[in-house]
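Milestone M4 deliverable, item 7.
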Amino acid sequence: MRYLKRLLLGWWFVVIPVYGLAGPSTWDDWERESLERAGEPDFDLAYAVAALEYGHPAQAVFALERVLLLQPWNHRARLELGRAHYRLGEYDRARRAFTTVLAADPPPAVKEKAHLWLEAIEAARDRRRARWEAGFGLWVGADSNVNVATSSDRVKIPALGEFLLSDSARRRSDRFMELQVAGRGEVPLNQHESLFFEAGVLNRNNFATREFDLRSESLRVGWAWQDDRRVFRVPLDVQWLQVGDRAWRRLALLGVAWDGRLGRRPVGLGLQLGTQDYPASSTQNTRMLILQAGTLLPAPGGRPLSLSVNLGSESATRDVGEHNGRRYAGGTLRWQTALPQQWTLSARLDWQRALYREPHPVFGVTRRETLAVLTLEGARRFGKYGTLQLRLQLADNDSTIDFYAYERRQLSLGWKLDWR
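Output delivered:
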């Protein structure tokens, strides 16, 4: 948020003119000196700024009220008083302080500062309101590989020779219709804490290959803590995936995530622990550990690139399934730009390299894979009537075992509606 960044970098303009650069070096030093100098306007102002930076906004309020009692025209002191009330979550008092400054017609720099803090107050109030969103989407498209299978018609098994694959084990193409319904919400508990949830259902029905229809149900619930500089979340993610009429996979992940800044660069860090279970094949069940990190990178045209990387480890829950355990590293690169006439264009590249833990018991080699997925999307918004989306996705999975190597192309056209 631009106003918070400028405010956090600009608070020092108060201290240097009134107190210089050689003030007390610790909060205890400030406290000791206040015993002798409290009541001196210049000291009280510098003391209040220090109190805010050391996390003592209540002390700052008392000091600034002393300054304004003697110097009611002191715009800088009143700005800092508004900032102190803001830190205490007393937004009405903070707003009165900033509007009083503006009513006095101060210099342009002071006006700009007051306006930025008023914007920050509105943003903070928005965070205190419960927020609800819902979305509905309908897509039609074509998929060159609905069963995510190899294009080869046969595989070679050591010591047994070549085997002809059945139709269901080979790549199948089809057209599809996809329906998505999703909702999310956030309920503030106090100035910094909130509860959040997200839920979604996806149904993809193929026109001919109904045995590969997909249904995904997902749920995310959690707790969040945030202030002006950082956000800390504890999410729980659950997903149920069905293929055709069979329960295919159950996934559960508990995580922690932090978003903030390192220097001037926005950074996100995350950790997730969980399990994935396959009801029809328990040897595929694994325990999961995922580490994540993300940031923004500069790009031509002033549109930043979003970069995230992840490291993962999956361990089989049964000894006979150890060949399904793996370690992997991957990442995602995203870019988006706005075009004339309410159009937006976005691109996303996902990649992953995986090394499985043990040789495959049938094919006799250790499985290594490199997956790359490129998604291109153009969208045209029509106000309250929704958004038209055209999406092209290209996927390529290279594997040391031909049976698991595949290519996939998907093209879809859809309409999406959102409500808030």
